[in-house]
Design goal:
It is a single chain. The chain is built from 6 helices and 7 strands. It is an alpha/beta fold. The protein has a single domain, classed as Alpha-Beta Complex (Maf protein). Strand 5 and strand 6 form a beta hairpin. The protein is globular and about 50 Å long. The two termini are about 20 Å apart.
Length: about 200
Amino acid sequence: MPGMSPTRPDSIPLVLASASPRRVDLLRQIGIVPSAVDPADIDESPRRQELPPAHARRLADAKAEVVRARHPGAFVLAADTVVACGRRILPKATDARTARDCLTLLSGRRHRVLGAVTLFGPDGRRVRRLVTTVVIVKRLSASEIDAYLASGEWEGKAGGYAIQGRAAAFVPTIIGSYSNVVGLPLHETAALLRGLGFAWDERG
């Protein structure tokens, strides 16, 4: 994706510090096309006794710092999404067993999705935002979990599900930003970009 063209030829480049194609798609939804996509590739393991909000903020900051060093003079946008059940940080599901454990835990409960966004301006100014969305999951039957696991949509997803796919049928209520659950809180991200002077054509 490094070959992507900037939103405006005369604008300062915007670099997205993320490997997530969902974040690229979300930015496109509001008319923003990053000049480059450059994943930070950092260790995302939680620290001992690290709470979900602190974990999300730390990772977004770390991603932004790493990529900023590679792109001086650019806007650098980084984000991290954490699915939290109480004080527990749910992992990104890398195997079906982990996904099943996550879905079993979330079944019939409410949980939080924490989206941390860090933006560096070309002058080195940094702005940050942490957005919390509450997601309520209906009680899931064993057959529903089995069918979802068979779909493969859980792979690499925090908390073992992707709300923009089949798991939408599991969620009767969302309190807060939907795009935050997908991977990037768009309203807040757009406000941060405007605040640091990044310009794009918002007419679509």
